[in-house]
Design a protein that fits this description.
The chain has 3 helices and 16 strands.
Length: about 210
């Protein structure tokens, strides 16, 4: 029996290099109180290569990593045409050496990840000066992420509210595929420098 698009959306592909979540210590020399983003990318690629047996096709980082314990930046790795986010954390600083840990994002429970999105000023809600991702942008990112995952776009994707730019904040959205409706839980996975990275988890059963 041919698997429906809705079912395929709800099931994540089998693990590949990009699905690996790992932490690997790696040291780099500090320059001007930070590790350059190019050096971080180089170290991340080497660490991942040691972990899974081969390096990804490419690793890029948004910012330099501050030489401060607990400092983090977001990077992105590419392998076989697939992209995955990664968080780099400064675990320790010893003189001019910074030890880093690398954690590759892993969408849990059949979820799909989207590119980090800029948070905009919140127009409605009780939090003064709060930040959120507009519901239309959440829907656009969700549709794109699920399309990239299963190879076919859902017929429609809509959200009833904006997503607060807070880690672990969630909203419910709805997608339509092949005449069926599926609920989707959208979670703010990380918020870094105004960028919100989201996970999308499609319900196992159709709602109608």
């Amino acid at each position: 029996m041919q698997q429906s698009t809705g079912s395929r959306i709800a099931v994540r592909a089998a693990g590949a290099l990009l699905a690996v979540a790992f932490a690997a210590g790696c040291s780099a020399s500090v320059g001007s109180k930070e590790v350059s983003k190019d050096e971080v990318a180089k170290q991340a690629s080497a660490a991942l290569g040691k972990k899974v047996g081969r390096e990804p096709d490419d690793v890029t980082c948004e910012d330099d990593l501050k030489a401060e314990v607990g400092a983090t930046i977001r990077c992105e790795l590419t392998d076989g045409g697939e992209k995955q986010g990664m968080t780099v954390t400064a675990k320790s600083v010893d003189g001019d050496k910074v030890k880093m840990d690398f954690k590759v994002d892993e969408a849990k429970g059949g979820g799909a990840s989207a590119e980090p999105t800029d948070a905009a000023s919140k127009d409605t809600g009780t939090g003064a000066g709060g930040q959120s991702v507009n519901r239309a942008e959440v829907a656009r990112q969700g549709k794109a992420a699920l399309t990239a995952q299963v190879g076919k776009a859902p017929d429609a994707f809509s959200c009833a509210e904006d997503l607060p730019a807070e880690v672990r904040a969630t909203i419910r959205c709805q997608l339509a595929s092949e005449g069926k409706q599926y609920g989707v839980t959208v979670t703010a996975k990380s918020v870094v420098n105004g960028k919100v990275s989201m996970d999308f988890k499609v319900d196992d059963a159709a709602t109608g």
